[in-house]
Model the fold of this input.
Amino acid sequence: MAHDEVNVRSAPKLDSEIISVISQNDSYPILEEKSNWIQIELNDGQTGWVMSKLIKKSEEADSDDNSMTTSDPVLKDKRVGTVGVSTLYVRSSASQQAPIIATLKRNYIITITNERNGWYEIDFNGQTGWVGSQYIINENSEPGSTQETIIIHDDTNIRSEPTTTSLIVKRAKNGEVFPISAKKDNWYEITLANGTSAYVASWVVQTSNQAISNMDSGSVQHKTIVIDAGHGGYDSGTIGTQGTLEKSLTLKTAKLLEKKLKDAGANVYMTRDDNFFVSLQSRVAISHQWHADAFISIHFDSFTNSSVRGNTAYYYSTIKDQKLAADIQSEIEKQSSLPSRGVLFGDYFVLRENKQPAALFELGYLSHPQEEAIVSTNDYHERVTEAILSGLEDYFN
Ligand SMILES: [Zn+2]
Done:
């Protein structure tokens, strides 16, 4: 993969704004060098930053005039990163429309081999694919300071191969730390003090990233979440232009959210887990019965004007509910493909009568034909449930 195009950024950081794209063999004056970045002057006099590994400096013996051209290809020092969301789609090319070729779980370690317009080309599991760069965290280019595994139980088995039946080469103590050189299935390949490689099961250890992310973001672990799938039974809710029933979409979304929250260690209760009618009073009673730390009500919208679209979060109490609604909506805004209509006051029974923190989410308009199609996809359900999970983590931080 040749770097026929190189991004020029406003600052020497991968998450800074792309202000221009330059082509291979173009030449620009160098103004400054800073760690892995080079500041150049563009033809219009603007200045910007490019990754130094993507370019080559010209070596004109007769001139002190430093300049550079974009070089080919290989990133000499490959960067590693970690998946920062619970499910990450890997696509065959750098486009939201490209086919999904794999999904990766949170904390999976990938190697970044290329970068284009907010996408990373990654190596994982012997394959290559593209992911949105915003979902990758803890990027690191410096060899030796890559991820570490932290032993959290005494007598953790360190093995010769990534299987539970292979030879135990060492028993590690709580608190011992080993650098991770690779990840194979659910095993970390680690480097022992004597320089040899060995394996430890990922499910019995923590990584340095996890230790960090546990500190700076909250967790839903041991929290009680009541998920309220709107409508049900004879109450179908709104009906889309193509006949989509709101009650079916709310249940499907609620069940996916239930799974993600349980996987993350939350205690989850559903106001309904099948297609039956539940009164609004009963829904609130379930929230009270379990002393919900958060009550999440899921709905889909409709309006007489079929051009109205987007998702909306509602709260009733500014004290009890608003932060919950806002924390989640800000993640929905980031992760869903629909426009956000914001966080609004809503006089809904399940919010007004609820003593527990509660928020209601209208996750898109079934009266908008295009939006009805989007919100019916698994991709959309993945995105919004992932967003609600992240939003809850922020809320409990
Ligand atoms: Zn509804």
In short: The CA atoms of residues 88 and 286 lie 33 Å apart. The radius of gyration is 25 Å. The chain is about 20% helix and 35% strand. The chain has four domains: 5-70, 79-140, 148-214, 224-395.
